[in-house]
Design brief:
16 helices, elongated, alpha+beta, binds histidyl-adenosine monophosphate, eight-stranded mixed β-sheet
Length: about 425
Amino acid sequence: MSRIKKIKGFADLFPQDAAVFTKLENTAREVFSRYGFGELRTPILEKTELFIKSIGEDTDVVGKEMFTFPDRKGRSLTMRPEATAGVVRAFVESGEYQPGKVLKYFTTGPMFRYERPQKGRQRQFHQLNAEIFGAPEAQADAELILMLKVFLNALGLTKLTIELNSLGCHECRPAYRQALIDFYKSRGKDGFCEDCQRRMETNPLRVLDCKAKACKELVKGAPEITDHLCGECEAHFSDVKSILDAANVPYELNPRLVRGLDYYVRTAFEVTSGDIGSQTAVAGGGRYDGLPKSLGGPDCASTGFACGMERLAMLLGEMEADAPDFYIAVIDERAANDAMLFAQQLREKGLRGEASYSSGSMKSRMRAANKTGAKTCFIIGENEFAEKSVTVKDMAGDDEQYTISREEYLEKV
Ligand code: HAM
C-alpha cells in the first residue's frame, strides 16, 4: 500500500516543536495584553475578493501565491495568506468602531502562501499578528515597535535588527512612483528581470525590493521615497523616529524597504535576523490607514505587524521538555492495574507522570524510568503489590529509597 504523505510545504508539529509554538503564543498573549490587545479569532477561509481588494491585485501574494478554489456552489474562496485582511473585514463587519475609539486586536494561527518552500519559507506557516484601529498618531506605530521589541526580548532574542521606512501617502506617493518609473526607463527596461519589467508599470516600488542580481545592480542610485515625502508624512515619520530614539531603541533606516502588500502608507518596518538563512524577516508591518474604508468600513487609521512563528522558532532552537514528576515501575505483573490507578490519583493531585503499562525486570524498568527523566520513581513489586505500598526512589538525588503505603503517600502529596 502506498503511504499518503503530507502536502509539500506543510509541516507536522510534533510535541517538541509544538512546545516552542505554545511558548511563542503564551509569551505574545502575556506581553500584548499589557498593551491592551484582545484576542480576535477570524476564519481561515475568506472570500477571494477580500484579499484581492486589500492586498492588491499586482502583488506576488495575490498574483501567484494564493490557495484559491471554488466551493460547492462555485464561489471563489481563499485560504488566508495573511491575517490583516480578515481582521479588517471582521472589524468593519462588527460595526464596533466609533470615531475617537481605539481598538487593538491580536490574532494567531496558520496562513497559506503558495511559495517555493525553502528554509524559513513554508506554504502553511504561522503568524502572531497585532493590529490597532483608530490611532492615526505616530505613537501607535512606535508603540507597536516597542511592544514587538519587548516580546522578542522576553523570548531571549536580542540580536535582531529593526529596519524602518516611510512609504508616504496617497498625496505624495504618485509623484515618487513616477520618479521611479522615469529612473527605470533611464536604466533601460530590458536589463531588468521579467517580473520587474512588468512591475515597473504596475508596482514600481516592488522593483526596489527584487532579489535578482541584475535588478539589484540597476536600482542603485534610484530616487528614495524619504526625499519625496509630503510635509505631513515627513512630520509623522520624524515623530516615530524621535519616540524610538527617546526609548533608546536602535533601528536602521532602509529607504528600500517597501513591503510585499499594497495596503501600506507611511510607517513600514521589518525585524530581520542574519541567523536564519536567506529569508531574513522575522516580523513585518506598518500603517494601512485607507484599508477599512476601502472595504466598506469607516475612514479609520490602522497600523499593525505580524511575526513569522516558524522563523522565531528557528531562532529559539529546540526546547528542553519539562521532566515529569514521576514514573511508576511495575515489576509484579499483577500490579499493572494498581499502578495505573495510583498514577491516576497522583495526576488528580496535580503531578505529571506515567505508569509503565506492562511489567518487566527491575533493570529494564529502571532504564525506562531514567529515560523519562522523572524526578521520582515508584516501584511496585511483589511485596508492594501485596501490601498496597510503593517503594519511592528519588531519581535526582542520591538514590535514596523507602517504602510507604500508597494511601499514606497520597495523603502527603
Ligand atoms: P508579511 O511581511 O507578508 O506581512 O509577513 C509577516 C511575517 O510572516 C514575515 O516577516 C515572515 O516572518 C512570515 N512569513 C511570511 N511568509 C512566510 C512563509 N511563506 N513562510 C514562513 N514565514 C512567512 C504580513 O503578512 C502583514 N499582514 C503584516 C501586518 C500586520 N501588517 C500590518 N499588520
